[in-house]
Amino acid sequence: MLQAHSFLWNYLWVAPNLLLFALGILVWLRGLRRQLPAFLAYAVLSSISGLALFAADVIPSVSAVNFWRIDWLSLSVETFVKFVAIGEIFSRVFNPFRSISKLGKYSVSAVGAVLVFGATFLAAISPGDSTLRLISGAHLLELTVYIVESGLVLFIFLLVAYFRTPWDRVSFGILVGYGVSSCVHLSLWAIMTNAAPTAHQRTIFDFVNMATFHVTVLIWYYFLLVPAQRSRPSSPKNNSDQGPSDPPAGGSPQDHEGTLNEWNRELERLIHQ
Amino acid sequence: MTLAIILIVAASLALIVILGISFSRALQVSGDASVSKRVQPLDVDAFRNLIDPTEREYLRSRLPGAEFREVQRQRLRAMAAYVQVAGRNAAVLVNMAQGGLASSDAHTAEAARQLIDGALLLRRNAAFALLKIYIAMAWPDWDMAAAPILNGYVQLNGAAMLLGRLQNPAEPVRISAR
Predict the structure, then answer these.
(1) Tell me: the pLDDT tens digits for A20-38?
(2) What proportions of chain A, in percent to the nearest 5, are helix, strand and coil?
(3) Which one of B95, B98, B117 has the shortest CB-CB distance to A99?
(4) What was the ipTM of the complex prediction?
(5) CA distance to partner chain A, nearest, from residue B61 (Å)
(6) What is the SS3 assignment for A60?
(7) A243 is in which domain, residue-wise?
(8) pLDDT tens for residues A242-258?
């Protein structure tokens, strides 16, 4: 079962890419294309490149060298649109608030630059996992991309946590997906490029990589297509804080009325003390 | 191999933080955390005294150097505590104003957006002010200004009152002396 080109292997390679492509179509049909153009591009291009890579793997006439060239191309395209999509989510979360949008842009640019330099340095000192530069280069590029991606996603999460910025369900879901996928992939590529695993271990890692991507796509399905729960008790104690939900983070104004009155009373007390 | 271990640990920690933030925001159980319990009262007058430059100059002129620095450090510690409270209260406001954003009334939604903007600005300034305060603790002679925090806090009170009035006109908020 856990062998290359087994049924599970083929399923885990093809199914998430088909699902991601279908998600792109659903995003288009549901009118989210104007809100999420970069994520839509990521869903379509990433799934097409993943499927093209699978085809190159199974078609006997494609040589090994050409397979790795396609892998390079696929990885480059996917990386570019992925970072544009992360930037899009960042803008959705921080741009509505003038007071922190500039700070956010500057800080994320600075963190991004540091991550790129750091990841390049780590890739340079990594021994690599193949004597063929075409192969080890592709794997080191994967490692570099996941270092930068996980660092950026973590930084956005920390910024949101510090400022308590309200964010919509879609942005939250997409970023959670990228966060989970990049952290798991980073761990696995770190082992594959630095610890010289055996062929069997490498196959297992490939399974985990593909399964993680599958889970990520399902996370995106849940957050993009399943509507947020609307039924909320009207008790003020349940409205004082909230998690990510539909814009602007759920709850009707009436739900918050009691809490706001309470807040007003508290402010009056503060001012008059 | 060492590099692999370092990267695995870093990735695991990042994943824990990301999932932790996600779950804490998605499953925030505030219990009976009413506003009065979550908001920490801030003594605005005492804060104003602490950041008053004339007060500082007075102490500098009256006290010997070493004693002034010791007193100034204590004042800076108190200032840091006030700034932290102001920042935390701003975060409470951000959470609470989110409901106003959903309002069908344009004025209410705009007031909520302004309140969130003001609260985020205060929180950002509080972070910078804290950094300055901690630096000033090492060099108590350095003149650091925390006035923007106080001004921001007072403006935030006004914005919160406005949002409250728009949300519930039947219950006007009194901010003048009783």
Answers:
(1) 999 999 999 988 888 999 9
(2) 80, 0, 20
(3) B117
(4) 0.79
(5) 32
(6) coil
(7) 236-272
(8) 344 444 443 444 444 55
